[in-house]
C-alpha cells in the first residue's frame, strides 16, 4: 500500500509539473504580444513626456518598472480613468479595461513580467509632444508666463492671446494645452475676429490678462485689454469655441462637421481661466494648437447647457446642507429633432453620481450617460459612437447626487459646511450642476454617421 501511495503522489507531481510547463510554453503572457497593446492604447496617451501622467509608459523597461503599481491600480479600477458606465452607453475612445485585460496584466506580473519574442512586438504609436492630435498648423500661446502666487488662493483671470496670420483660414479643430496641468482647473475660450483688419492696427496692444475679481464691467475690461477696433467699434466674438476641464481631450468630428473661420487678425479670449490654489509660487504658459481645414463647415455645431447658468433650472435649488446626501434634477424639452454629438457633465468636489437620459413623447427612454462614482479630476467631453437622434417633444432629464458628509474624502470642508451655487461661482469649494451637449439639426440618415474622426489632417 505504501508503494501505491508514493506512486500516486509521484504521478500527481508529474501532472502538476506538466501543467505548469504547458502554461509557460504555450500560455505565457508577454509584454510584446499581450500587455503592450493594452498599455499603449489606454495608458500611454497620458503617460508620456509632456503629458499629465506622473511617469512614462512608452517602453517595456518603463512598464516593467511600474508593473506592480499598474496591476494594483487596474485591479482596483482606479486606472485608466473612465468614469462613464460602459454598460449604459458606449462612447468614442473609451479608456477602460475589460476583466480579461485586467487578468492579463495580473498574470503577466505573476509570471515575472516576461518581455516575449521580439517578432511579436507591438510598436509604440506615434505621439507628438504637447498635443493629443498631432502636429498643429498654428500655435497661439500666452505672450508671457503668468505667475501663480503661492498663497493657497484660487486665481480667476481673463486672458487675451492675440494672433496674426497671412490670410483668412478655416479651421477644423482647436486644442487647448494647459502649461501647468496641476493648477489649470478650467477655461472657457472665445474667438475674437477682426473681419476688417485695417480697423485694428495692433492686435497685441493692451493688457494680456486681467484679474476677474477686479472687473467692474465687460466694457471696461475690453477697454483695458484694447479689444475694440481703433475706431471704437467692436470686433466679432464667437463664444465657447474651446473649453477645458481636468481630463478633457479635444473633440474632433468627421470632416464637414463643426469648425470655424479665423481671420488675418484675431485673438482667443479666455474667460474665467481658473488656477487652483498652491502653497508655492508656480507659473503657467498655456497655448492653443490650431488645425486648418480645406473649407467652411458643411454642418456647424450648436451647443446647449442645462442646470447651473443654463436653459433649465436646478430643482430644488442647489443648496446642500452639511451632513446630507442630496439628489437634484434638471429637465429641458427638445422642440425640434436633433442629432447629439457630445456630452459634458459637470459637478465639483461634492459630486457623487450623475445620470442623464432622454424620454420621448411616446415614453421611450434613450440612455445618455451614467456615472456611478463621480471623480472631479476626470471630466470628459464624451463623443457618441454615432450621431444620436433625439426626436422633437422629448425631454432630456439629468440627475445629480451630491455628498456633503465626512464620508466624502473630497469634501473641502471639515466639518462639512453648507455649499451652494453662488450664482454660478467657478470656485471648486462651491458647487455646480451642469449638463452641456453639442448637437446638429437632425437630417435623415444621421444615425448611421460614425463620429470617430479618421484623421485630423
Describe the structure.
32% of the residues are buried. The chain contains 6 helices and 21 strands. With 457 residues, it is an alpha+beta fold.
Question: Outline of this structure?
Answer:
The chain has 457 residues and is of the alpha+beta class. 16% of the residues lie in helices and 32% in strands.
* Rg from Cα: 26 Å
- Average of the residue pLDDT scores: 90
Supply the number of structural domains. Answer: 3
Helix/sheet category: alpha+beta
Please tell me what the overall shape is. globular
Q: Major sheet: size, sense and barrel closure?
A: 5 strands, antiparallel
The strand line-up of the biggest sheet is 6-3-9-5-7
Distance between the termini: 78 Å
Strand proportion, as a percent range, falls in 25-35%
In the CATH hierarchy, the third-tier topology of the largest domain is known as: Jelly Rolls
